Amino acid sequence: MGWTYLLLAGLTEIVWATSLKYSEGFTKLGPTVVTAVALACSLTLLGLALKTLPIGLGYAVWTGIGAAGATIVGMILFGDPVEPLRLACIGLIVAGVLGLKFVA
Q1: Could you say which of 10, 21, 43, 98 has the lowest number of CB atoms within 10 Å?
Q2: Domain enclosing residue 65, as ranges
Q3: What transmembrane ranges does the database entry give (predicted)?
């Protein structure tokens, strides 16, 4: 169950990071509320995951999912540059997260 919580925590991290961008510095109420709720959900799910997973593993996977996911969302929704080196770096993050999953 810890891995399920961790995956959901990472996905909700992507949600709050994206809604943070839409909140425009917390000046728009709707995205600000989404940011706060998603952040609370993400941290709660991370806390549940860390009941059964080591902290180093859980935190690294959580931030990896969030970093890779937010970068991809930025490319799709916000026109962030899509460059081969950026894609390769995302691939390295994903490889690291998968590596940690299979080592644990």
Answers
A1: 98
A2: 2-103
A3: 33-50, 57-79, 85-103
d(CA 102, CA 45): 21
The mean pLDDT of 41-57, rounded to a whole number, is 97
User: Looking at this protein, which amino acid is placed at residue 53?
Assistant: L
Number of domains the chain contains:
1
> How many Å from the N-terminal Cα to the C-terminal Cα in the chain?
14
Secondary element (H or E) of residue 86: helix 84-103
Number of Cα atoms under 13 Å in the Cβ half of residue 81: 4
CB 96 within 8 A of CB 40: no
pTM of the model: 0.90
